[in-house]
Amino acid sequence: MRVIVVGAGVGGLTLAHGLRRAGIDVVVYERDSAQGRPQGISLHIDERGASALRACLPPAHAAMAEATMGGPREQTLALSEVDGSLAVESTQPSDGLAGRARPGRQAHRPLLRAVLLTGLEEVVRFDSEVTRFVQRGDGTVRVWCADGSVDTADVLVGADGIGSAIRRQYLPHVQVVDTGRRMLMGATPLRAVADTGLPDLIGDSPASMRAGGTMLALGLLRFTESPATARNRWLPALSPSAVAEVEDYLMWALPSTQDRLGSAESPAAVWHRATELISDLPPALRSVVARAWPDATVALRIGMIPPPLPWQASPVTVLGDAIHLAPGFGANLAMQDAHHLRDALAEVDRGRITLLDALAAYENTMRRTSFVPAKASA
Ligand SMILES: Cc1cc2nc3c(=O)[nH]c(=O)nc-3n(C[C@H](O)[C@H](O)[C@H](O)COP(=O)(O)OP(=O)(O)OC[C@H]3O[C@@H](n4cnc5c(N)ncnc54)[C@H](O)[C@@H]3O)c2cc1C
User: Fold this and answer.
1) What band does 212 get if pLDDT is binned at 50, 70 and 90?
2) Residue 291: which of 215, 154, 198 has the closest Cα?
3) Strand order in the sheet with 72-73
4) What are phi and psi of 315, to 5 degrees?
5) What are phi and psi of 294, to 5 degrees?
6) What percent of the chain clears pLDDT 90, i.e. is strictly above it?
7) Residues with CB under 6 A from ligand 1
8) Three-state secondary-structure class, residue 218
9) Which residues make Cβ contacts (< 8 Å) with residue 9, sequence separation at least 6?
């Protein structure tokens, strides 16, 4: 069996590792260059993402990913200002109940991406944008890239994110709705905010504070093992640049709207706008944003996809943000999809189930497990 995956995001790369480990031939087409584009600094990984990584990645990759996550996050803190100092006003368990996160750990997004790319040098084709596909009479699928190149496989997986070209052709009735909301995200070196008392106050727990109409969320990433040491121990094949100059930091996220963001686009402009938007917050929080790495700031669009009716399975399928969106835990869902799809395709490869039955079962599970939380979060 040969599988074409479109998109080298967390979902597509997790699937590629899983298929390789199952002995299945896979190629990944990625529109961007190897450097990729800014996608935010960190990810909250819960047990869905963690178990997908353990199941699909080679053991050394999974160990590297785990060693470089932050400590366990089991509760969310609400902060307030008392007598001029920040204090914890209340705590909420991270139990995954509606609107709440599941327990998990924070991962450094660029490092996780570099770990996922390690060992897939022969598999991922960068600068290759897939533009369309055709399902052929012999059951195979043919894809075309923007540069005119063509490839054929038994299965095509659209793991190409929110703007998915595969979804737009295959399931044109499934529409992304731009909510108009934006999340401004950035990071500040931990050493730069030690004097605010915040690191000791929040520990490994995600925290947030509201004042006036403004809310700022914070998450501290203290690497459990230093990335450079972990690389030497677990994954020497990882590019040294992935761990160079990586240090503990405080991630911050500022929910906003396109209207409030205005015309800011470059990282420095978005960072500058963030400093203006938090004028209602206490000085300690304002200094977190003021002392950030401006280049690490991004403004991410928040979209949603209303749950679609089931469709008939074919050798074309989709996973992750290409079909469902959940800004706070979408990477976990993308990795979970990859895990389920790898298991389904491995069963086909062993001759235990037909391809279409396996894909129908995968898609039923995906619609059941990924759209319920997406609906709740909407
Ligand atoms: C503000 C914000 C905060 C978030 N925080 C979290 C969090 O803490 N935890 C969490 O689990 N999730 C979080 N998410 C969600 C998470 O970022 C996404 O759900 C996740 O990245 C989806 O993974 P994916 O592999 O499906 O798609 P993506 O990561 O988007 O990857 C898609 C890839 O496909 C490529 N591509 C696109 N079109 C083509 C094409 N035509 N041809 C070839 N390649 C193509 C893209 O370049 C990209 O590399 C957050 C999202 C937002 C917006």
Assistant:
1) confident
2) 198
3) 42-46, 104-108, 72-73
4) -70, 5
5) -55, -35
6) 93
7) 6-12, 29-32, 40, 43-44, 129-130, 159-161, 163, 165, 183, 185, 300, 302, 320-322, 327-332, 334
8) strand
9) 159, 160, 161, 320, 321, 334
DSSP per-residue string spanning 299-364: EEEEEE-PPPPP----SEEE-GGGT---TTTHHHHHHHHHHHHHHHHHHHHTTSS-HHHHHHHHHH
What lies within 8 Å, CB to CB, of 195 at 6+ separation is none
Nearest CA to ligand 1 atom 14: 327
Q: What rounded mean pLDDT belongs to the chain?
A: 95
d(C-alpha 373, C-alpha 324), whole Å: 10
Instruction: Read off the DSSP letter of residue 125.
Output: E
Which of 31, 41, 170, 215 to mutate for ligand 1's pocket (most ligand atoms within 8 Å of CB)? Answer: 31
Question: Which residues have CB under 8 Å from 333's CB, separation 6+?
Answer: 48, 320, 324, 326, 369, 370, 373, 374
Contact in structure between 102 and 94 (CB atoms under 8 Å):
yes
Distance CA 113, CA 39 (A): 11
Tokens (6 digits) for 7: 């998109």
| Residue 18 φ then ψ, to 5° | -60, -40
In angstroms, the first-to-last Cα distance of the chain is 38
What is the average per-residue pLDDT within 258-274? 95
What domains are defined for the chain? Answer: 1-33+126-176+305-378 (3.50.50.60), 71-102+179-303 (3.30.9.60)
Given a contact cutoff of 8 angstroms between Cβ atoms, the answer to whether 269 and 186 are in contact is no
**At 378, is the pLDDT very low, low, confident or very high (cuts 50, 70, 90)?**
very low
DSSP 296: G
pTM here is: 0.96
* Spatial CB neighbours of 252, under 8 Å, sequence gap ≥ 6: 185, 186, 187, 188, 216, 217, 218, 219, 288, 289, 292
